[in-house]
Amino acid sequence: MADEDRIMLEIAGLKKKFGEDVILDGVDLTINKGEVVVMLGSSGCGKSTLLRCINGLESFDEGSIRIDGEEIVSGSKAMTHLSQKIGMVFQSYDLFPHRNILDNITLAPVKVQRRAKEDARAQAEQLLRRVGLWEKRKAYPRELSGGQKQRVAIVRALCMNPEIMLFDEVTAALDPEMVREVLDVMLELAQGGMTMLIVTHEMGFARAVADRIVFLDEGKILENLPAETFFNNPSTQRAKDFLQTFEFKKH
Amino acid sequence: MRASGIEVLFLGSNFARLVEGLWVTVRISLLAVLLSLLLGILFGLFMTLQNPIARAVSRVYLEFIRIMPQLVLLFIAYFGVTRAFGWNWDAEFSAVLVFTLWGTAEMGDLVRGALKSIPQHQYDSAYALGMNRRQTFLYIIIPQTLRRLLPPTINLTTRMIKTTSLVVLIGITEVLKVGKQIIDVNRFQYPTASLWVYGAVFVLYFLACWPISLLAKYLEKRWR
Ligand SMILES: Nc1ncnc2c1ncn2[C@@H]1O[C@H](COP(=O)(O)OP(=O)(O)OP(=O)(O)O)[C@@H](O)[C@H]1O
Ligand SMILES: [Mg+2]
Question: Does the model's ipTM exceed the 0.95 cut?
Answer without folding.
Answer: no
